[in-house]
Design goal:
globular
Length: 337
């Protein structure tokens, strides 16, 4: 439940805008509490989580340091909210970043199985939506145009949960208005990286596998687009049907051929080294990550500008060949719908 809230106005320092700090917290009533909770929290739909980091010591991350102080002593809420606002103001180096209201919120968590996890929200609104105000004017009505914050989509935000402090907390982040600066919120202000959890390993395994099938496999082996489509379909089915990922089981069931398995292992190692990540070979599969990644696993064979073939099932039901008229695909089916 939202229990504390303070609002600051953070301009763009490069554009010589002002930083205006509130001198007291916003006094919440039940009507606005519910509305603000819904506005702040509905933007966080993904299970993907991040954690604070620093190039030296974690305590040198300004946001990590401030939220740690608040979690330890709630009386420091206003003081640390000012530090957070000042940090956001100071890191602005792009003139395209918009000024906006900065909301610092404290949420008391509900107790589940004897554990209660509080959280701190940092939200920034930048875009102003035009709206009409209708006012009575004698025996008619007057129309006045004004601008305000739309409640449909939060521009920027993060929620820091009071757990995993030693590794940088668990943090949910959204940025729906990048202003042409993709580093401003995630990197310059928060300085966060993705957490090493089930979501991460599920996401990264599917990503490296797709890259292998699309880019590397055709270079090393005689592979048709239909073969690639089958590999992609089988991998997604594996992740949807299994609760746990086991590397050896996956490669034997999906890739099957020993030479292809070896090639994938080498490709995965090169990917980890290049991206500076370590992908586990044994983890619980995260359904949300599978659902998100599967959107990019569309097995489509595009034929010039005339046709597209969507391959969903049995590879044996599609054949490729050529004759005097050119190349062709032959499709077999039991029922037309």
């Amino acid at each position: 439940m939202l229990t504390k809230l303070i609002i600051h106005k953070v301009g763009n320092k490069i554009n010589q805008d002002s930083l205006i700090l509130s001198q007291q917290e916003y006094q919440l009533d039940e009507e606005y509490r519910e509305m603000l909770e819904d506005f702040f929290l509905k933007a966080f739909k993904s299970e993907e989580q991040f954690q604070f980091y620093s190039d030296s010591y974690l305590v040198n991350n300004p946001i990590y340091s401030s939220v740690s102080e608040i979690f330890e002593d709630l009386a420091k809420f206003q003081y640390e909210s000012e530090n957070i606002a000042e940090h956001l103001y100071d890191i602005t180096e792009n003139p395209r970043v918009q000024a906006g209201e900065l909301f610092i919120a404290y949420f008391e968590g509900e107790e589940t199985e004897g554990v209660k996890i509080d959280s701190i929200g940092i939200f920034k609104t930048e875009n102003k939506t035009p709206f009409l105000k209708i006012q009575p004017e004698g025996e008619t009505f007057d129309i006045e145009k004004d601008y305000g914050i739309g409640l449909t989509k939060l521009d920027k935000g993060c929620i820091i949960y009071n757990n995993f402090k030693e590794s940088g907390y668990a943090v949910s982040v959204v940025d729906n208005n990048k202003n042409g600066d993709q580093y401003y919120w995630f990197e310059d202000f928060l300085k966060v990286k993705q957490r090493d959890d089930e979501y991460f390993h599920t996401q990264e395994t599917l990503a490296v596998y797709k890259d292998f099938i699309v880019k590397q496999l055709p270079q090393e082996f005689e592979t048709t687009k239909a073969d690639q489509a089958e590999f992609l379909n089988k991998s997604i089915e594996f992740f949807k049907e299994k609760e746990k990922f086991d590397y050896e089981e996956f490669t034997k069931e999906v890739l099957q051929d020993a030479n292809v398995i070896e090639s994938f292992g080498n490709f995965k190692s090169d990917y980890e080294q290049e991206m500076q990540v370590s992908i586990s070979e044994d983890f619980a599969i995260n359904e949300s990550a599978v659902k998100k990644q599967s959107r990019g696993f569309k097995s489509v064979i595009k034929l010039d500008k005339n046709f597209s073939i969507y391959v969903h099932g049995d590879r044996k039901m599609i054949e490729q060949g050529s004759d005097e008229k050119g190349k062709y695909y032959r499709l077999y089916f039991d029922e037309e719908k």
